[in-house]
C-alpha cells in the first residue's frame, strides 16, 4: 500500500485526538483553570481538523498523486506536533514558556494549507519535472 506510513500516522493522530478529548472532558474538567483547559481543548480541536484534512489528502493522493501532497502532510504533521503538543504540555505542566512554541506550529499548519493551494494550482503528477518530463 502506497503511503502506508502516512495512513498509520493519521490513524494514530486520530486516536490521540479522541483520547486527548476524552481526557479533557473527564479527567481535566474541574482540575485545571478554565484558561488552561481551553488551551488543551484548542489543541484537540486543531489536531482533529488537521487529522481529517490529512485523511482527505491521503485519499486524494491514492487516486491522483501530485507533487506537493507529501509536503502538505509533513507541514501539517509538524504543525500539529508543535501547536497541539505545546498546548497539551502547557495545560498539563503550567509552564507558560511552552506557549512560545505554539505560534510556530500554527505557522506550519498555515504553510501546509498554502502548500495545498499551490499543489492544486500546479497539479503536476508526483515525479514529473517542471518541463513535463519525468
TrEMBL record:
<keyword id="KW-0472">Membrane</keyword>
<keyword id="KW-1133">Transmembrane helix</keyword>
<feature type="transmembrane region" description="Helical">
    <location>
        <begin position="97"/>
        <end position="121"/>
    </location>
</feature>
<feature type="transmembrane region" description="Helical">
    <location>
        <begin position="70"/>
        <end position="91"/>
    </location>
</feature>
<dbReference type="GO" id="GO:0005886">
    <property type="term" value="C:plasma membrane"/>
</dbReference>
<dbReference type="InterPro" id="IPR006696">
    <property type="entry name" value="DUF423"/>
</dbReference>
<keyword id="KW-0812">Transmembrane</keyword>
<protein>
    <submittedName>
        <fullName>DUF423 domain-containing protein</fullName>
    </submittedName>
</protein>
<dbReference type="Pfam" id="PF04241">
    <property type="entry name" value="DUF423"/>
</dbReference>
<feature type="transmembrane region" description="Helical">
    <location>
        <begin position="46"/>
        <end position="63"/>
    </location>
</feature>
<comment type="similarity">
    <text>Belongs to the UPF0382 family.</text>
</comment>
Amino acid at each position: 500500500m502506497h503511503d502506508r506510513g502516512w495512513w498509520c500516522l493519521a490513524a494514530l493522530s486520530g486516536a490521540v485526538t479522541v483520547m486527548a478529548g476524552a481526557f479533557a472532558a473527564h479527567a481535566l474538567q474541574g482540575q485545571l483553570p478554565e484558561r488552561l483547559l481551553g488551551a488543551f481543548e484548542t489543541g484537540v480541536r486543531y489536531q482533529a481538523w488537521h487529522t481529517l484534512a490529512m485523511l482527505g489528502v491521503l485519499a486524494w493522493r491514492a487516486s491522483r498523486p501530485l507533487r506537493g501532497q507529501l509536503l502538505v502532510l509533513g507541514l501539517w504533521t509538524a504543525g500539529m506536533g508543535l501547536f497541539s503538543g505545546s498546548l497539551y504540555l502547557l495545560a498539563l505542566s503550567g509552564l507558560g514558556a511552552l506557549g512560545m512554541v505554539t505560534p510556530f506550529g500554527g505557522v506550519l499548519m498555515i504553510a501546509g494549507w498554502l502548500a495545498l493551494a499551490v499543489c492544486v494550482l500546479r497539479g503536476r503528477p508526483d515525479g514529473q519535472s517542471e518541463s513535463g518530463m519525468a
